[in-house]
Design a protein that fits this description.
Rossmann fold; Dna Ligase, domain 1; seven-stranded mixed sheet; seven-stranded antiparallel sheet; flat
């Protein structure tokens, strides 16, 4: 992605020298009439023209039949004509001098129909031939509050003006509602850009532009799919480096895709997990609901970033104290012990005015006295262990509704603004704002008013995580290209050669272990055999007990088919085991001939893990580590990470698992070598990187860790896919 070129093209869209509405009309209720009216109402200072070959005027404004008839060259064209007419009209506009266009019409293959797809090809060709920057098609227009540009299709009353939030997304409807909800909360969005089908410019382009826009503090993005993962990474990282969180709500997890996956890793690597693994280091704050997004925007706008995870809270209710503590559990937010001097000063304040030495009376006095309440907040501001103060309170809905709270809000606001402390008021429930609420809120810009515990905690936790990663992030220019710096082993080149004609290649366990062994991942001693006698001979050589397995590239879940026998203690048991496996897999319904049998050294004890890698269709390769064996499906204790992955980063992922308690020596047991596990997981990521586009999935399950010994992969499956 050429970020500079991308930013220039978006600049032509959002800061045009003039606007030309193509297909303008005054027919009541129509989109052309709505846009024609809207574009004149919001203070756009440069010329606005109408082009319609069938009209000489729109209301009291002149209408021009061609671009050549305009008083000046067109700059930004708003295309409100039917889809089939747009490619030719766009070409004419570009020839006349237009630099950018917004295309509202749908009909470019959204339904998969051949006519729409052909029309999309024509439109792309016009864009390629002319270089014109195109928003859409199938979008709802823009609001750029800084210059009064508004081409948005919205029949409700619009308030357009400068503001700190950019709303960007692939659904105009979501952005329209977000725009109104934020305004209800007293936050004015400064920009709204609906990207539509993204035949040309995408969300990545708009994010990159807003990263450089000094009047924007935070970017909200609604996303259904990523058009270009590299461009999206670069744009979000640019925003991160500018100190602007990209708060993202994404849909599109594919349950069907997980169910169809042929390996454990594929079944667990849903698009949400893969997206997070790849994107969270690039400045993306992915939230789980649109309500969470509003709270995160509220915090980012009024408190700014970074946000720390250490919270001090003051509650009016003992019940709410428990609600808040429960809500924060497991979120990453903490309630640290107060600094000794702060704790002592608070204790002295709470004892003031108590009756018969009852601290509860003193606490009640502090909460009901405006002066003492503010003094309590002032004392908390002195605690270096607290990043954020959260006070239970809500905006009054009308004057006199809550005695003295307007005074408290103002004094606390002025206090924390002077002290440089981040503070939020939190309500027990979500509430609608009134005109009076908004009036009170407008006078308090340096504090946040968040609503309801769960979503507020989620928003604080997400921004705290973003802040931690932003501090540790490499600048965009130093980011990895994603290409391996070393030459892949010859075995990888051989595999890619086998895929030259396309199709899918699944490696059986023995072949898969040969590949991972090349990358330094330990495997047990084992031998491929064809019959019972050779199996017994191999077992005699390896030493008893042994494991006997069916071997086939078409039987990926051998245990389910009865294709794995463990603890075979002598040659007779091995010979009998060959016949047992044959009968088991046939009973299972597997009628393909087996490639043979695998006689393996039996590795006993230890902790089973699973390592793997999966090519996500949207964001590319990700690696996975988790609890292995039967615990994989039972616990789903897994972590995902992007490729490449250093041994140190891999070790950190493993330490983040719940299973890490066992690995570190649970209840006096010997600790495992997490560094060695990190090396093995990093090697899995390196293999995924070297396989590149050929990777479908890698599944190493289980890989066994034992104290004082190198991890050993007991089973492995690799699925590769050639180019179609």
């Amino acid at each position: 992605m050429d970020l500079i070129r991308s930013i220039e093209r978006v600049g032509a869209l959002v800061s045009p020298r003039n606007i030309v509405v193509v297909g303008a009309s005054d027919r009541p209720g129509s989109w052309p009439a709505t846009v024609w009216k809207t574009v004149h109402e919001q203070g756009f200072k440069s010329p606005i023209y109408a082009v319609n070959p069938n009209r000489d005027s729109i209301g009291d404004k002149p209408c021009y039949r061609t671009f050549d008839a305009l008083p000046e060259k067109p700059d930004h064209v708003v295309m409100l004509t039917p889809a089939p007419a747009i490619p030719d009209a766009l070409a004419e506009a570009a020839k006349a001098g237009a630099r950018s266009a917004t295309v509202f019409a749908a009909g470019y293959g959204e339904d998969g129909g051949p006519e729409g797809k052909a029309l999309a090809v024509r439109l792309r060709q016009v864009i390629a031939d002319t270089g014109i920057a195109v928003q859409g098609p199938n979008c709802t227009g823009n609001i750029i509050g800084f210059n009064g540009l508004c081409t948005l299709v919205d029949h409700r009353k619009l308030v357009v003006g400068p503001g700190p939030v950019a709303l960007i997304g692939q659904s105009g409807g979501v952005l329209l509602y977000a725009n109104h909800i934020l305004q209800d909360r007293g936050i004015q969005p400064g920009a709204l850009i609906s990207s539509g089908n993204e035949i040309d410019m995408s969300c990545a382009d708009y994010i990159a532009y807003m990263a450089d826009e000094p009047r924007i503090q935070v970017i909200f993005c609604y996303l259904e799919s990523v058009k270009d993962v590299g461009a999206f990474k670069a744009a979000c990282a640019r925003a991160r480096d500018a100190g602007k969180p990209v708060i993202l709500f994404k849909i599109g997890s594919s349950e069907e895709g997980r169910e169809a996956a042929s390996t454990h890793t594929g079944a667990l690597a849903g698009s949400a997990e893969a997206f997070d693994a790849v994107m969270e280091d690039y400045g993306v704050v992915r939230i789980d609901s649109l309500d969470d997004a509003i709270e995160a925007i509220e915090i980012a706008v009024h408190l700014g970033v970074p946000i720390g995870p250490r919270v001090g809270a003051l509650s009016l209710s003992g019940a709410y104290r428990g609600i808040l503590v429960d809500g924060a559990a497991g979120s990453g937010l903490t309630f640290p012990k107060l600094a000794p001097d702060v704790e002592g000063r608070l204790a002295a304040l709470l004892s003031t005015g108590s009756s018969a030495g009852n601290p509860a009376d003193g606490g009640f006095t502090v909460l009901t006295s405006v002066d003492k309440y503010v003094e309590c907040v002032d004392i908390l501001c002195d605690d270096p262990n607290l990043d954020v103060l959260i006070l239970q309170a809500e905006l009054p809905r009308e004057t006199g509704m809550a005695a003295h709270w307007e005074e408290r809000f103002q004094r606390i606001h002025d206090l924390v603004a002077r002290r440089g402390k981040k503070l939020a008021f939190i309500s027990m429930f979500s509430r609608m704002f009134t005109d009076y609420s908004r009036e009170v809120r407008a006078a308090l810009p340096k504090v946040a008013f968040v609503q309801e515990t769960r979503k507020s905690v989620a928003a604080f936790a997400a921004l705290a995580k973003w802040s931690e990663r932003a501090r540790a992030a490499k600048p965009v220019a130093a980011a990895s290209s994603g290409k391996s710096s070393t030459k892949p082993p010859a075995i990888v080149a051989d595999l890619k050669a086998r895929l030259a004609k396309g199709g899918t290649l699944t490696l059986n366990e023995n072949d898969a272990k040969a590949v991972i062994g090349t990358y330094g991942i330990g495997v047990p001693r084992e031998t491929v055999v064809k019959d019972a006698d050779s199996a017994a001979a191999a077992a005699d050589k390896i030493g008893y007990p042994v494991v006997l397995k069916a071997l086939s590239d078409k039987l990926t879940h051998k245990s389910d088919a009865g294709g794995v026998l463990i603890g075979l203690a002598d040659a007779a048991a091995v010979r009998a085991g060959v016949e047992t496996i044959k009968a088991n897999v046939k009973r299972y319904g597997f009628n393909e001939p087996l490639d043979g049998f695998l006689v393996c050294e039996q590795v006993s004890g230890g902790t089973e893990l699973v390592f793997g890698a999966q090519r996500d269709p949207e964001v590319g390769p990700v690696v996975m580590a988790g609890a292995g064996g039967i615990l994989l499906e039972l616990m789903k204790d897994v972590a995902f990470a992007p490729v490449p992955l250093s041994p140190t980063e891999a070790g950190a992922k493993i330490e983040g698992l719940r299973t890490a308690k066992l690995l570190k020596g649970y209840r006096g047991a010997a600790a495992h070598d997490i560094d060695a596990l990190g090396d093995a997981l990093s090697a899995t990521a390196r293999l995924a990187q070297d396989l590149g586009d050929a990777l479908e999935s890698i599944d190493i399950n289980p890989i066994v860790s034992r104290p004082g010994k190198k991890p050993v992969a007991l089973d492995a499956v690799i699925v590769l896919r050639g180019k179609e």
